Amino acid sequence: SMSLLFHIIYLCGEKLCLGLLEQFLLYFIVLCFAVSAQTAAGSCARPDLTGGFLVSDQQSYPHESNVAYACNDGLKSALDGWWGTSTCKDGKWFPDIFCIDERSCVPPEIPHVKYSTTTGWFKENYKLRVECDQGYQLKNPRPNYLPQCIKGSWDLTPVCEKRADACDQPPQIANATIIHEATQKVFASGFQLGYICKEGHSIEEGSSKGLITCESGEWTMAPPCSRVSKRSSRLTHTQLIFSTNSDLVNEQLLFVCTFSAPACVMKKGRYTYIELLEDEDFKEGEIKSFDCGYENYEVRARCYNSEIRLTQCKCETLVYFT
């Protein structure tokens, strides 16, 4: 490449080739960096090992390569033996490479058990505090006892078992997709999962999304996802008289009203001295009485020509003299 550079200068002359040389140098630098980066991408540096030695000692290890190492007398590896192996993955070693006192303990590999460690190992006599994943509980043959590291091993192996009120994976919901991580097999009581109806379907409220909940070991019943007609509309106070096609496609339907519209309506919260628990419907000419804030006082409301007419608030108590 350098001979090519001098050849360009000789042919073109310094002034004529100045722009060409700048472009060439830039291309040459970028190319060198790209090749260097591609070579080092994902590689791991030589691990710093104290108390042991590497079987294959080199300054750099490519991605997915393995390295074996051994520990000195009185020490052991992260794999709980005097020797161990580790794999280079995207610039990091898995598992970590170290040699520890043979009386220390490495973390136990137990399903559904959680614990925290900053060093990757525990000194002798250390008491391990563990937690279980959601939906599991600690099964301990000795209540309130913590596993302890004794001479390189744990005197008690913690076990997390499924809780009685936990749920397994939910059953399939017709015409819907449940949203959850496929790897999760157990769900704690109270855990909620969402589901989405397939295109062209919805639940009763008109929404395409729903929830199911784990309660006492069982999943709650999911509101079904029903097929939605493009021509359907929400009708209230009606009754379907005849239908030949549940999909409602190119069909004429006959409905009958089951409720006549009120002639007058007293709206809740509109009247300052009348406390309504809900809207009051009136037929034409109908009269209703309401308390108006004082004992034995009431007001009368009458529907007249589709308008509410109110009397004054007055006492309606009858007093008898003997």
UniProtKB/TrEMBL annotation:
Keyword terms of this UniProt record: Disulfide bond, Signal, Sushi
SMART domains: CCP
Superkingdom of the organism of origin: Eukaryota
Primary location class: virion
Keyword check for DNA-binding: no
Domain spans labelled Sushi: 42-101, 103-162, 165-227
Pfam families: Sushi
UniProt-annotated location(s): Virion
This protein's name: Sushi domain-containing protein
Species: Oryzias melastigma
Lineage: Eukaryota, Metazoa, Chordata, Craniata, Vertebrata
